[in-house]
Amino acid sequence: MANEVLTKEVLNFLKQLEKNNNRTWFDEHKTIFKTHENKVKDLYGSVLEGLRATDEIEKLKVFRIYRDVRFSKDKTPYKIHFAGSFSRTGAKLRGGYYIRIKPGDSFIAAGFWDPNKEDLFRIRKELEVDSEEFRGVIGESSFKKVWGDITGDELKTAPKGFDKEHENIDLIRKKQFIFVKKMTDKEVLSPNFVEEVTKSFVAIRPFFDLMSDILTTDLNGTSLLD
């Protein structure tokens, strides 16, 4: 696995962009931006290489710096961070990984950002029947040491068709199933950053393995992939 290392100049550029978030400044510094962007892409490529040693990754997507301002009150044209996502392969796995690099606010994440309606219903039905295995995986001490508690958007009450008094309603009402790990600037610039990110992503696998089992079977445990 290549040992790509970011420099302070990458973070400094993003700080400058935050202060000068306009097309004139960006156009004047576009060559510098492309240099930093390529460095970040190389780093994401190194993470992809490490992930593929233990998981099946369908694709790496490096998000563009340009913001879609059509429906936003914030009309600044550029994002002030670099971001990339890694999608797991096909119907049998699901889920994905994410890295954001932003001065003072970098993080890595893993899980299910936007499960489709059918998948979300299947997860909720599983949790309605029994959450013991799910809670066991996300509550395991070594897992929590890396990833902390599950997070993500959730409903204020029970989804339609579910009992708001159900013992597992704290999980059933979730719309996303995400784990987030914040990273300091020092960690982002460390020579060990790629290695630490990859190790953290490997640590999420028990959760992904369980979710893959849930999403590829019905409530009776019969495979949906046959």
Describe it for me?
By secondary structure, the chain is an alpha+beta fold. It has one domain: BirA Bifunctional Protein, domain 2 (2-Layer Sandwich), CATH 3.30.930. 45% of the residues lie in helices and 15% in strands. It is built from eleven helices and five strands, in the order αααββαββααααβααα. Strands 1-2-3-4-5 form a five-stranded antiparallel sheet. The longest helix has 22 residues, at 30-51. The two termini are 36 Å apart. InterPro entries: CHP02453, UCP028451.
Write the layout of secondary structure elements.
Layout: H1 8-19, H2 23-28, H3 30-51, E1 57-62, E2 82-88, H4 90-93, E3 96-101, E4 106-112, H5 117-129, H6 132-139, H7 141-147, H8 169-172, E5 177-183, H9 185-188, H10 193-203, H11 205-215
Antiparallel strand pairs: 1-2, 2-3, 3-4, 4-5
Helix pairs in contact: 3-10
Which overall shape is indicated by the principal axes computed on the Cα atoms? globular
Order of helices and strands: HHHEEHEEHHHHEHHH
Beta strand %: 5-15%
What would the CATH topology be?
Answer: BirA Bifunctional Protein, domain 2
Number of helices: 11
CATH architecture: 2-Layer Sandwich
The residue ranges in which pLDDT falls below 50 over 5 or more consecutive positions are none
Arithmetic mean pLDDT: 94
Approximate helicity band:
40-55%
Radius of gyration: 20 Å
Task: For the record, give the distance between the C-alpha atoms at the N and C termini, rounded to a whole number.
Answer: 36 Å
Largest sheet: 5 strands, antiparallel
Structural class: alpha+beta
**Tally of distinct domains:** 1
